[in-house]
Design brief:
Helices cover 40% and strands 20% of the residues. The chain contains twelve helices and 13 strands. The chain has helices spanning 2-10, 30-41, 118-129, 154-169, 176-191, 198-205, 246-263, 277-283, 290-314, 318-334, 341-351, 379-394; strands at 47-56, 68-69, 71-85, 89-94, 101-104, 137-144, 210-215, 221-225, 231-237, 356-362, 369-375, 399-402, 410-411. Bound molecules: alpha-D-galactopyranose.
Length: 413
């Protein structure tokens, strides 16, 4: 909503203002974005880049445990328009945020106090830390239509679009995987979230109508077609006030690390995903801390579910895929404890609907979105029933989006 007020102030006399409301994300056209750049900076942009948000179909909280994930890039994401300046400064502006930041070249390696700019700045800092000389200033304008705080990786979109743009502008020649790593490092150092690689990887490597079956240990991946006959990927936004903050997330990461340490008393293990179910049943009791044990049990089970789900999808067995999604939610609820009342209500209401093959929370958890596979003919009923029942249970009005699987980062012009 901030965006609305900011943009309104720039376009007081215009009545075709783009309003982001929480139901329909009216996508700004490229021309409108370029016009906004001209308004803000008084000159034309020289380049436009885009990088998407993501939805994870299955494989949650497995990435920082060296496991498999299965996300896909979405058609919505973040645009970055930029032009060189002669002032030897970096100017950051966003149509989603009121704050404008101007930084000298010697201010590019330290995070700011609580600012959205930390996401792109953290990325530029990584280029500097890798020894890339920054000698050219840029005026930048960001605009994104990934709902904030919805667990659809608006931050990764912002990081990867910046990494992609600077890689192009500075001719640094990093490949997409390296750009994802730069985004992840930025998240660690500037947003202070010890995240895995999934979100940035999906934003960088996504492909239209494909999901990414990624081994987060080796970073080998396969693009698996997700052309589902008569079935849609439906995203339900809980608009829950609870977010997965860095504290709760980093705590899960630490608990998994503690589980690995405990396992190392009986076997040399690098990460939890190394264990299959049988091995975990044999040596899992070495994890004497009950909480750490349950976290590990989720990870081991979730890695297997992800492998099984991809196999099912390839075999055209969507029923099995859906059941594995449900089981994933239950494990995230009971063992990993990252769902919360809103995500549980949304998934439970979805499970009741005829024509729903599977439904689960997606992303970090606590708040944010669920992802469901829904038969075409059941979509309207889903939105109506789940919408009504979810609101009755939580007092919050949800939103639903049919996901379009899009491409990873690219230069628009
Ligand atoms: C967040 C993190 C990812 C991943 C998911 C959970 O989105 O950024 O790295 O850990 O949570 O699967």
């Amino acid at each position: 909503m901030k965006f609305y007020y900011f943009y309104l102030s720039l376009h007081e006399k215009k009545n075709d203002i783009i309003i982001i409301n929480t139901v329909n994300y009216n996508i700004m056209t490229l021309n409108e974005l370029k016009e906004a750049f001209l308004d803000v900076y008084g000159k034309n942009s020289q380049a436009v880049y885009f990088s998407p948000g993501r939805v994870n179909l299955i494989g949650e909280h497995t990435d920082y445990n060296g496991g498999f994930v299965f996300p896909c890039a979405l058609s919505f994401g973040t645009f970055l328009l930029m032009a060189k300046n002669d002032d030897k400064v970096m100017r950051f502006r966003s149509l989603n945020q009121p704050e404008e930041i101007v930084l000298d070249f010697n201010q590019l390696t330290e995070p700011l106090d609580k600012s959205w700019v930390n996401y792109p700045l953290g990325v530029i800092a990584q280029f500097v830390k890798r020894g890339i000389a920054i000698e050219q200033g840029y005026d930048m304008l960001f605009w994104g239509d990934v709902p904030n705080g919805a667990g659809l990786s608006s931050s990764a979109a912002l990081e990867v679009v910046t990494a992609f743009a600077f890689n192009d502008q500075l001719n640094t020649g990093y490949d997409r995987t390296e750009l994802a790593k730069i985004g992840q490092k930025s998240e660690h150092e500037f947003a202070k979230v010890n995240c895995g690689i999934m979100d940035q990887f999906a934003s960088a490597q996504g492909k239209k109508d494909r999901a990414i079956f990624l081994n987060c240990d080796t970073l080998e991946f396969e693009l698996v077609p997700v052309k589902l006959e008569g079935i849609k990927v439906l995203i339900s936004n809980t608009h829950s006030p609870h977010k997965l903050d860095s504290g709760a997330y980093n705590q899960r990461v630490a608990e998994c690390k503690a589980a690995v340490e405990a396992l190392n008393k009986v076997k040399s293990v690098k990460c939890l995903a190394e264990l299959d179910q049988k091995e975990f049943d044999e040596i899992g009791t070495a994890i004497t801390d009950k909480v750490a044990y349950r976290r590990a049990r989720h990870v081991v089970g979730e890695v297997q579910r992800t492998v099984d789900a991809v196999e099912a999808l390839k075999a055209g067995d969507i029923e099995t895929f859906g059941k594995l999604m449900n089981a994933s939610h239950v494990s995230l609820r009971d063992d990993y404890e990252v769902t919360g009342p809103e995500l549980d209500a949304m998934a439970e209401e979805a499970w009741k609907i005829e024509g729903v093959l599977g439904s689960r929370m997606t992303g970090g958890g606590f708040g944010g979105c669920t992802v469901s596979l829904v038969k075409d003919e059941a979509i309207d009923n889903f939105k109506e029933q789940v919408g009504k029942n979810y609101e009755k249970r939580t007092g919050i009005k949800p939103d639903f989006y049919v996901a379009e699987i899009g491409d990873g980062a690219y230069r628009v012009e």
